[in-house]
Amino acid sequence: MPPLSDRELFAHQHAPAVSVDLVSDSPAMATEEGASACAAACEILRQKTAEAVSFAADSGWFARLGLECILLGPGSIEVAHKRNEFVPIDELENTANVVSALIERFCRKEDAP
Q1: Which of 18, 27, 52, 101 has its CA 20 to 30 A from that of 1?
Q2: Residue 56 is part of a domain; what is its CATH number?
């Protein structure tokens, strides 16, 4: 290893003390574009494609287990987890309808009476 230059030596000797505390570790979730749950949600929502988001959710843990995950719900990330957070009632109702349709599609037994 070559000797350090004066500049590198100074930077090394005067480096600020830095510490990092990991307070949360949420793995990323990446669902393939053609995944059945994603396609079904897009169809129900009358969307052509799904969109990616850049915030943490527990779905990354489920995806690590090999489960196909999607992330959807009412409200806006702009007001989520902030003072005076709110979700309009019509968005709650619409999301309940979407979740019901997804449950019907993926959880209904074909041989049920």
Answers
A1: 18
A2: 1.10.150.900
The helix-helix angle for 89-107 and 36-45 (nearest 10°) equals 140
Per-residue pLDDT tens over the stretch 32-48 = 878 999 999 999 999 99
Q: Tell how far CA 74 is from the center of its chain.
A: 14
Flag whether 13 is in a domain: no
End-to-end CA distance of the chain: 76
The radius of gyration of the chain from alpha carbons, rounded to an integer in Å, stands at 23
How many whole angstroms separate alpha carbon 11 and alpha carbon 69? 46
Instruction: Provide the domain count of the chain.
Output: 1
Within a domain: 2: no
Two tokens at 38? 């994603």
Range of the domain at 100: 26-107
Query: Any residues with CB less than 8 A from the CB of 88 and at least 6 apart, and which?
Result: 74, 75
